[in-house]
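Archive transcription. Copying these from loose printouts into the bound notebook so they stop getting lost. Printout 1 of 2:
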Amino acid sequence: MNAVIIAIVVMLALSLLRVNVVLALVAGAIVGGFTGGLSFSETITSFTGGLGNGATIALSYALLGGFALAISKTGIPQLLVAAMLRIVKKEGQPDRTALGKVLIVLILLVMALFSQNLIPIHIAFIPLLVPPILHVLNMLKIDRRLIASVLTFGLTAPYILLPYGYGFIFHEILANQMAAAGMAIDMADIPKAMALPVLGLFVGLLIAIFFSYRKPREYADKQVEISEEVVVVKTRNIVFTILALIGTLTVQIPTQSMIAGAVTGIGILYITGALKWKDADGLINEGMRMMAFVGFVMIAANGFAAVLQETGHIVSLVEYASSALGDNKGMAALVMLLIGLVVTMGIGSSFATIPIIASIFVPLSMAFGFSPLATIALVGTAAALGDAGSPASDSTLGPTAGLAVDGQHNHIWDTCVPTFIHYNIPLLLFGWATVMLFNQ
């Protein structure tokens, strides 16, 4: 019995039963450790040893939360919310209601897309922008599973395809790890190889919008606790906010550090006077609280991943699969993609999955005679599979953080399951087709 499969099944089963994701990750790691031949003491040692790998991510999200909160104090989110409310303020007009739905979907999609490359604040914008418009979503009877699907698409597709912001980090990790495994590639080839898989994600988005969740869904219009502080929007503050975003991107790309980028953005806002120095401590604390759950899940996910690696069963899983495939290239590609799905579902990070699978998949791809473009598509898609749909992924935790503030949106059933169905299935199909296309 493979420890990787058992651990992930336990983690997913507990999550589906509405057990807290952090506890599900801990339980899955313990079961996986036992299955992999580790003692309880060795399992705990591996788990706690891996927690440190998530500390940087947790601190990054905390500071990004502070940066996003600082931006909210400049009044930009309030302008967006006010624009939405103006569109839908007249009830009983079907055309205005339809326009309101379109506007909300487009604004949230654009914000999610920009958060990965152009305005690299990642998921930190969601808890600020989404809770204030829940009343509008309820009034328009918009299915929140649709909003979760829209946000998750925007959080995943850009970094997979575009080499900017988080995408630069993803592409560089992919290139470096493939080179370390024996296949040097040009980073400029990655967008070519990943274009068709990303098209699969777009197909899933269209299905979610126009078929799966187009029908109205009723929600109780519960009162959401939102700050009543009046924010005066000044032109100078908007200009300084744009400068802060540019500064964040300028620092984050070369340093590959979300922490450095967030600190730069916050610093520019304070130095220019867009925000007051006396507010710094309160903003950072509030931002940390806002992103605390995501940070804890990511820390636990790193401990979970450390236990799975310690068992050695990831390698044995791939070796067993490859030995059973013979010379069937199509089946080999499909099995490797499925293994990537399983690993990423458990770890929750496509970035962290690449080093695990590249060292195994690249030699296998070379043995099967896959071209460099086909191998890029294989490793890149295998890493991206499972990011949408994983209970431990920030691409699902982010949407839930904004949509669940009134207790009417479940992380597993309303975010993870819908995004798993609409994105992993087409990504798997389009990724496999890409590997086969470039292998001709």
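Printout 2 of 2:
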Amino acid sequence: MRDELFSMDTKQELTDPDPVRRAQITSKLPLPKRFYKEAAVAERDGQFAVELDGRGVKTPARQNLLLPTRAAAQIIADEFSVQEKEIDPARMPATRLANTAIDGIVNDPQVVLEDVLRFASSDMLCYRAGSPERLVQRQTESWDPIVDWAATTLNARFILAEGVMHVEQPREALGAFSVHLGGFTDPFAIASLHTITTLTGSAILALAVAKGEISGDEAWKLAHLEEDWTAEQWGVDAEAAARRAIRQREMQAAVKILEAVSV
């Protein structure tokens, strides 16, 4: 049973980058029964392991699930603790993030950071609506402070555009942004940074969270400004709201891990 549990994420279907798609897939699979009574954290040679009834957890690639801080390991132990009769990986976003960091990012962190930089080259915050006026004003009031922060603090001066036509960002801006990304070397922090980027569509927001300029909740709200505007005008779509709730749980887990490994 343990081998089945920890090899679940090795199936290609469960590596889908979309958390909603992953949840849909896992909902169709038979879930393993909970086989342990207690999930706890134990220190091992300066790192922190998650243990189930005293036995260490393995990643899908059969590596020890070890975290750099007790706080980070406790987040994952808590995910195991709240599982009920069955173990549902869809409800364990921090565990999946840690598996990704250990099995993938440790070996090639630069590839992941380069992907974050690609988001910055077409960052959501740089593309503004042309109308209606109230939406334009809301974007200006909400997004400009973060873009200004990137310019003044990161020395990354991004160009704003109206509409969806791609605008080439200055090499100097991307270069400056890349320097700050390069300051992240912990694989769990990088995994969190990438997750926040993909969920918000904004590397600028992700870096602002990572550097403590804004909270994860603030970044989430800023990332969904247009979606919330549409809901105000036309009402909330129930299916869209359910998908958003799944993504938000992924976001919250990434922010918690990022904070836990940055202590």
